[in-house]
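Hi team,

Filling in the usual template for the complex we talked about on Friday. All components are listed, including any nucleic acid strands or ligand strings, so the model treats them as one assembly.

SUBMITTER: L.P.
PURPOSE: interface mapping
COMPONENTS: two
RESIDUES: 652
SEQUENCES:
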Amino acid sequence: MVVKLTDVAELAGVSATTVSRVINNYGYLSKKTIDKVHSAMRELNYQPNSLARSLQGKSTMLIGLVFPSVRHPFYGELIENLERKLFAKGYKVILCDSEKDPEKEREYLRMLSANQVDGVIAGSHNLNIDEYQNVTLPIISFDRFLAPGIPIVSSNNFEGGKAATEALIARGAKNIAIITGANDTASPSDYRFDGYKAVMDAHNLETNGIRLKSDSSELLKQIEIEKLLKDESIDGIFCTDDLTAVTVINIATRIGINVPTDLKVVGYDGTKLLHQLAPYLSTVVQPIDEMCDVMIELLMKRIEDADVILEETYSLPARVSLSESC
Amino acid sequence: MVVKLTDVAELAGVSATTVSRVINNYGYLSKKTIDKVHSAMRELNYQPNSLARSLQGKSTMLIGLVFPSVRHPFYGELIENLERKLFAKGYKVILCDSEKDPEKEREYLRMLSANQVDGVIAGSHNLNIDEYQNVTLPIISFDRFLAPGIPIVSSNNFEGGKAATEALIARGAKNIAIITGANDTASPSDYRFDGYKAVMDAHNLETNGIRLKSDSSELLKQIEIEKLLKDESIDGIFCTDDLTAVTVINIATRIGINVPTDLKVVGYDGTKLLHQLAPYLSTVVQPIDEMCDVMIELLMKRIEDADVILEETYSLPARVSLSESC
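RESULT (copied from the run log):
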């Protein structure tokens, strides 16, 4: 015998609507009501079936998360945060690691178009804008321009880049280089470079630095960094991500450059993992928790009302956290 | 007009069975055939609908991954590897971060019981064995005992623990302490401790060390580690995970203990991320790629035949990678 929602309602002594609200985590519910319904669901071994709901043209309660790499500390922390918050709202997440694989990203978009998820949060773009534009499901973008009408949530990359550079100058650095990714005009992360440049220009200091391609091998990146560090005039480096900043400090230490006496270093991202592994690193901390809150709130709005008007960008403040490296 | 599988077959000039095989990545297919079918699918904008397949009592092409924390470098690398390999077989993954949340793990198991995924790979166990025993879907376990009949894939924790301890002794350490997690008899990771103990006993050396609870705060763990390090007789430490090993090295450096002259340190896990961030760390490298291959192969066998007889444990060799810290 299949247990029905009305059986749960009867045992819990509440209405069927209330059971549905508990299952979908929707509307105001007292803890007492939630507990009663959960207890009745357990007793009857009731399985709310999202596939069945999907058949009725309703929600699948699945959200797609499309990010370049789950093993990157920043995306790992972001994905974990999103998953936890979406779970609390009754959603499960489908994970798509899209790094360097446009065909994979395209296949996920096809899946979305087939209405197999209720919405998507994407921080990746191997594809051209047209392909994202053709997806009719709700999408929120993290830190990337995907297509017109898809809101972008990010840290304030320009202000973050400025703050990092100002911190280096405040500690006495003058010949400050930047190490950042390939120039990609579709990526707001490049505003970190613009923030650096704005501060250097304002202080009449010369800009300098290298751009590392994301598909370069680690070894090649290290060779380029070592070459830059052997330019003895450099006394400060702003790295637009923390992994590169730690690599810079490791190489500097190996070739006898003292951090921070001879070289001051500031990174960007500020994950808990890097704080644990490299507590000496000064960095710009992205507000991961708040960014996740905003992305989910916007996505829920779009799911409830496909035509809701949203801003083009939601830029949240990043803060500098100083430690021994600067 | 809904595009059907037979439309794709006609345009590609192949049979419907071949199209189905391409979609499900099943059987021998030439690259030419795959390309023809993909090209026809694109031209017609054909969406293979896994929900529709699920309705017909067939596969959902979804696999659940239940792990404690996606932002942990080891699980992040493992999940990324599993996701890539499962995608190549036509599966999408649903991610469940289960850390410290039995109710969440239980909710995912309920979802599995409702036949919403084809199978599960789980490296978590907040729950008692009964609850896993009642799940009838195919499950493969990573490094944890879940229930009788669920095969466990892991690195050879006992041999790994032995190898780490032997490496410390070979480099001249005698007073070797171990830093490991809480004693948990359901977890094969504790065999790393047994390996350490076996080598120490064989050399007539005294065992020593601390167990850190996984739910302790980072600060409390650091205080305990610092207390251990201040015992000046200790000249070697085996940490059963790399994050703790890096924390030990950071604290030692801060309080003036030279690594490796005064203190030799070996970790466990050997992820690419830690190799990048802490290239100086000697560690026991788990064969992540091979373990993922084995887990997926076993899961596919169980999906094809629920009654297939599998071994209880599949233990893969781990290798010591020596660097500056030992």
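MY TAKE: Chain B touches chain A through 51 residues (CB under 8 Å). The first strand of chain B starts at residue 62 and ends at 67.

Thanks, L.
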